[in-house]
What we know:
Layout: E1 5-9, H1 16-26, E2 30-32, E3 36-37, E4 52-53, H2 56-64, E5 68-74, E6 77-82, H3 83-91, E7 95-99, H4 102-111, E8 116-121, H5 125-139, H6 144-158, E9 166-169, H7 173-191, H8 198-210, H9 216-225
Parallel strand pairs: 1-7, 1-8, 2-7, 3-4, 8-9
Antiparallel strand pairs: 3-6, 5-6
Family: Belongs to the guanylate kinase family.
Function: Essential for recycling GMP and indirectly, cGMP.
Binding site for ATP: 10-17
Amino acid sequence: MAGILFLISAPSGSGKSSVVNRLHSLVTDLEFSVSYTTRAPRGSERDGQEYHFVTRERFEQMIAEDAFLEHAEVFGNYYGTARHSLEDAFRAGRDLLLDIDVQGARQVRERLPEVVSIFLMPPSPQILETRLRGRSRAEGVVDEEVIRRRLAKARLEIENYREYGYILVNDVLDIAVEEMSAIVSSERLSRGTGPVTEEDRRLQEIAERCRQRNSEVRIKPVLQAFGVGNAEAAPVEGALADR
């Protein structure tokens, strides 16, 4: 099998789903993994789209079978990414994108160090809170405790940005989508042998600016806004995870 494994992580409400959905319409030969969970569907969620909804017994059987690349128990429910998602995509000659949280990403990197990891940041706590409230209103329930918890967790997740190869700030959706697309294209080009066009070089330059080592100036205001200092990355506790 051959292919590239991409993973993207972001605090809840950062606009990750919007970026990934737009990417899906722009990039060919890129599969999007659908996670498994034991929680009940919410709102208009359908099995096989947002998640594969399974029983706790079935999930624990899959754990025993070592069927997951990563998994975690969050607020009494299991979440996980099946290993067959990667195998199926690579067998079909496609790359795979995983949409998972910080602790899940850590598990994947331990198993597959060659993974291309991307962290998407919201531009500020204020904008993140606005997005969270808007999403809650759209779901018909505004739970202040849930919003408070997700804002607190966002800071903990952002503290771990150094674990990721690329950093994006989703202040303008079109720009974030272009940067995400450029990262995919650049990583593919780095593994190819064909000629490189001017457009390829443009995309490579965009991707290079998004590398963590080149992102410090751009992300500094975000880190300051969330109160994240220059200390070493702090682990995210499982009890705080919220997929």
